[in-house]
Structure prediction request, 971 residues.
Amino acid sequence: MKIATYNINGINGRLEILLRWLKEAQPDIVCLQELKSEDHKFPEKAIKDAGYQAIWHGQKSWNGVAILSRTEIRELRRDLPGEDEEFTHSRYIEAFINDLVIGCLYLPNGNPYPGPKFDYKLRWFERLSDHAQDLINRNLPVILIGDYNVMPTELDTYKPEKYLNNALFRPESRKAYQELVDQGWTDAIRTLYPDERIYTFWDYLRDAYGRNAGLRLDHFLLNKKIAPSLVAADVDKYVRGWPGTSDHAPVWIELSEGEVLETKRKKNIAEDPEMKSEKRVGSQRPEPKGLKAILNTLPESPIPLDIKPMKATLVNEPFDEPGWIYEIKWDGYRALGILNDGKATLMSRNNLEFGQFGPINELMETWEMSVVLDGEIVALNEQGTADFGALQNWRNKKSALLAYYVFDILWYNGRDLTGIPLNERREILDAVLPKDNELIRPSQMFEVGGIEFFEAAKRMGLEGIIAKRADSLYTADARSREWLKIKAKHRQEVIIAGFTRNEGTVKNFSALAIAVYDRKGSLRYIGKVGTGFNMAKQKELMKLFEPLITAESPFEVEPDVDEPSQFRPRRMGAKATWLKPVLVCEVEFAEITNDGKVRQASFKGMRIDKDPKDVILESEADTDLVLAEDDLKATVNNVKPKKTKQVSNKVSKSEAVKIPPHQLLTSRNETEEKKVDGHLLKFTHLNKLYWPEDKVTKRDMFNYYHQVAPFMVPYLRDRPMSLNRYPGGIHGESFYQKNVKDKAPDWAETMPHTNVEGEQKDYLLGNNEATLLWMASLGCIEMNPWFSRVGSPDNPDYCVIDLDPDKQHFDQVIQAAVEVKKVLDAIDVPSYPKTSGSTGMHIYIPLGAQYTYDQSQLFANIIVKLVHKQIPDFTTLERMISNRKGKMYLDFLQNRPGATIAGVYSLRPKPGATVSMPVTWDEVKPGLTMRDFTIHNAIGRIKETGDLFTGVLGIGIDLAKTIKKAQSIFK
Prediction:
């Protein structure tokens, strides 16, 4: 029997995820926590259609628990015995299923500590403990399951020092949990995995679950009657990687029919003779029970005889990122090793056969398998480092040791492995690759900091390092951004277009004229290389050159091969002999000069494995940009765009949305009462000057919001509001108010929300004109809605680029906005600009609530990095003002839960009574100013233009396609 627990964190918002997991995992019984659903809103029909009966005790806010079962459920309790005057919420439900008593619980979080909520947590724990003792005393098998919000030991958190004062890790909580266990309960996970860090909860930081930076909060406690039946336990960690999922992952245990606990313990894969590798709990695929078990899950496939290797993208600097592993960048020939029916072949990256490395073939042919390997053939010198020059004549180099370093396995005994993550392919490689042979060796992988590893590679004189995402799939014949190379030395494959001889030389040649193809397919001269070959090498090269000599230059415009340079100011009398451009060699150089020539180049060896048509000048991509693109791509791969009703992008004309013809408040009285949306509102201090310099009163503000409401409310509806209050006007003291519990009118709609500190708040929803005017009556000059709505709080409707200038003229803000548009236009992304009403501009990109805040922020990060590269002189990506040095901040971090900016059509508490106004891109040009749109002219402009912002709420972009296009354009 399989029993699971899952803190779903909002059952209606994550119902599709729950149903998907139920279908895949097939648990018999499931306990759910944090339903965030009132009883009448529980999705009973969908659960029943999935094959489960259910009982539940709902709660409008963050609590509520449920039990699902494939068989009959008999409810026993809907709460714990005893009462508490504070924070009374549904946190416990108990049922009788299959002769088991199942208690499903959500123990209070207790944060912040110290405080009344923590005291309540301990009291609730005491109630649980009393009830648990009563259950222990009965002669029935009992399991207490759920989110205990307790990390029992240091082993249950990846960083204990971070949680010293957290209610989840306080000694009092841990003691209470231990006292509960000491009644005679078995902690299932800790019993089966006594020494491992196994987590069930991860925060929302990027790939936190992937790098196992989590906590263990979800526990199964089994009484002595049922504990001997415990067979297995695990965490379906991969579910945490699904878009839009809870911060917890499902956890499950397996019970047998008999008593097996004493003989059944954690089985390590290394105990299986077919798979010598450590088991990883909660991996992204089902846990293998051995090599055959893994292979049986993979598709059968004929051996790929013509496959080409996956390629890495060159980036400009090393990095430290979780989820990446590192290898040495070997200085040799990339080779696929194919062993098919006892015949071994080594193939180059262009499907050319290497026939000169016979010993490798002969060794492979002794293996009893069919396999396709990926690796690098090198010649090792006496120091054990790869010597590329020695590789070409390794038989004649007594000190050179031939080696084939294998770093990947693509196919094995009829199974295609390219569709599983790298870390799993490496497990298989480690299991099947024969050991203890110096000729064919595994290329070691290092799980260390990339920067530290790169510095070590430089000290050792290595060519560089390779960084690979641990979960990367193998994409043959593609240059992936999930594999990155960082060079310690500048190396480049080049075409030998000719050779030169200086006046008076006795050498066969003085230098090689080298070239690359540009992206248009034209051969481009990039200078000469005059070192790196002795007389013997020159003679060897001349034999290759002689049949290729031609009187015609291979370049469209013949280059001056004797031109002076900064470092060689006089001419040497060099004469060129041109060659057909078919030979490829590798050179090392100091830099590429401004005119595109190599400086201080040295010959390293011929590249017989390289097609000259593929030789282009390899440019370094920006590491930060590549990582951001890759992170975003990884998170959106499994996102299926939601089918949402499209909102017309056409400009709404004034007759489509009516502006009230009359002002709301027309008398000179200090106080008036008016009915709005059927609700009586009282307006006070109407003659108070809110903008003293502009003689604009509080009355004027009310009248503005009354008239703009038909256009503004659609952008506030269903959105939690952060109230920025200026009760004394723009020069008075201001403060933010988010919680309106017991303060908002009875008719106002709110959203219960618990923040990261565990504080419970009620956010006001800006659902109608009455709410808009009530906010204004509090002194809310500007309106600050969330980017997401109450129905999809984790999924923003749009992404925002915020241009935040410091000392720049507004024309430079316009210049930056235009650069943003150029980038977005290049990848076919629609965008909608508006003035901030202060000093900057906001550019909105519709997402259609299909993606998370993290994904939105990653996308914005990519855009601003591309923009910053175009205008680095006056823009910055520095978040801290002190580090900006007066430059304009390209802000992408606004795209986070709970963050707000001034909404569309909002007034601003700035001199001039300015308005945050949508504009057309044609209007975004020098001469546009903030004061073009104020309380005095905004209504007239809207009557003329209609709503220019409707596309913001339309169908969102497809991020997967967008990132793919960006990667193809911005290489």
